[in-house]
Design brief:
By secondary structure, this protein is an alpha/beta fold. A seven-stranded mixed β-sheet has the order 6-5-4-7-8-11-10. The protein has a six-stranded mixed β-sheet with strand order 14-13-12-15-16-17, covered by helices on one side. The chain has a four-stranded antiparallel β-sheet with strand order 1-2-3-9, with helices on one face. The N and C termini lie far apart (about 50 Å). Bound molecules: thymidine-5'-diphosphate.
Length: about 400
């Protein structure tokens, strides 16, 4: 049974950066639910994929050094650990992972045309399609069974998870391995990062919920790794249950025990989370209003989908955060969805005009603070809402 626990208000489509601000932009209710039976956390309103994953989708995986490094390290691990003819990546984005492999070793699947074209143009076979059973059938006919399927930050964006795993099971060879990685629900709750929720993130996975889900598809997790990416993610190594060659590692039990100890399986945990989110909103608004009262200016650093949730939920307007900066070409000179806040092109000296930088991309805090060391030393202060609203001084 789905039980409601948090209302994040009316939110615009998170990655729909517009050329001009529209007051009457379409907004959708963002309400969060916990399923007491299978322990899955999800949002209630499902927006058709075609509305979100358009041919001008602005999110690019390779925009940060942290993510490029993470995918590079993973490519080394895959080459070392697994035997495969071909890797299939579901949600290959701009090729941050697949371009670490030889062109004949990988197949990309990417529904956003602008992104699929980036890898196609480089000579990587990329299907500009949504992941579903129909595509799995087509791929099996053309390439045979696949020994290694990988997907990062994608499956949680797909409403019909039963179709997702049925299709994977169909295409994966019996000795094959499926690796998925997504933000960890446990880390999200611990860090109070409610901004992991937006209309694209239909689900937020815990190891417990993934285990329950896979058991309907004769699949099981045999290893889990904790990653620091996206504010704390889990990488799940999955195999067919009938494959006894790969041994189940203790990491799986450990992670599930850790989650249970925290109360991830209890509705009460989510009610507490909900109260903490409301406190976080009040406290962030108080800080921003104080900064303004003292005549200081704030810029948002990283026009992330997460920041869209924050500014819309907290109703932060350009009087509190005057602009955002971002390196992504597709976001520059556009507006933060739902708000009249313009995104400026990142330039070295742009931060000089501001007193505070609000970390929209708080998940890259280390990378950003290091990159901005010089101006940070000179007096720029950072502001973050994770795990609690606070100012970061040099
Ligand atoms: P991410 O946190 O992955 O976003 P989302 O919440 O949308 O999934 O995206 C990081 C964003 O921050 C991306 O738009 C690029 C931007 N960015 C910068 O502009 N400069 C930087 O130094 C870093 C690390 C990120």
């Amino acid at each position: 049974m789905n039980k409601f626990f948090l209302n994040l208000g009316k939110q615009p489509l998170a990655n729909n950066y517009l050329k001009s601000f529209k007051q009457n932009q379409i907004r959708y209710n963002l309400r969060l639910f916990f399923n007491t039976r299978n322990k899955m956390v999800s949002i209630s309103k499902r927006i058709p994929s075609e509305k979100m994953f358009t041919n001008n989708y602005p999110y690019r995986s390779s925009m940060s050094k942290t993510m490029r490094n993470s995918f590079y390290k993973l490519s080394l691990e895959l080459k070392k650990k697994f035997i495969f003819k071909k890797i299939l990546e579901i949600g290959s984005n701009d090729g941050a992972l697949i371009t670490n492999f030889k062109k004949n070793e990988v197949i990309g699947v990417e529904p956003c045309k602008n992104l699929a074209q980036i890898t196609s143009k480089k000579g990587y076979l990329t299907y500009n399609k949504y992941w579903n059973y129909e595509l799995a059938k087509k791929l099996k006919k053309k390439h045979g069974e696949i020994d290694l399927i990988y997907s990062a930050n994608t499956l949680t964006h797909i409403s019909n998870l039963n179709d997702v795993f049925k299709s994977i099971n169909y295409l994966l060879s019996d000795k094959g391995v499926l690796i998925i990685e997504d933000p960890s629900l446990l880390e999200c709750i611990k860090k109070n990062s409610y901004d992991q929720f937006y209309n694209e993130h239909i689900y937020l996975f815990s190891a417990l919920a993934v285990k329950n889900l896979l058991s309907n598809h004769k699949l099981e997790i045999f290893d889990i790794k904790n990653l620091s990416t996206h504010g704390g993610s889990l990488r799940y190594y999955i195999k067919k249950k009938k494959n006894k060659n790969l041994k189940n590692k203790i990491s799986v039990k450990k992670q599930i025990n850790k989650e249970k100890k925290f109360g991830i399986h209890k509705y009460k945990t989510y009610k507490i989370f909900s109260q903490n989110v409301k406190k976080s909103k009040d406290s962030l608004l108080k800080m921003l209003r104080n900064i303004k009262k003292n005549g200081n200016k704030v810029i948002g650093y990283g026009a992330t989908a997460k920041a869209v949730t924050v500014v819309n939920y907290c109703n932060i307007n350009k009087n509190l955060i005057s602009n955002f900066i971002d390196t992504t070409p597709e976001k520059i000179n556009k507006y933060i969805p739902g708000k009249n806040i313009k995104i400026l092109k990142y330039k070295n000296n742009i931060l000089k005009k501001y007193d505070y930088a609000f970390l929209g991309a708080w998940n890259f805090k280390k990378e950003i603070l290091n990159k901005e060391k010089k101006i940070f030393k000179k007096g720029l202060k950072f502001l973050t809402h994770i795990p609690k609203p606070k100012i970061i001084y040099y």
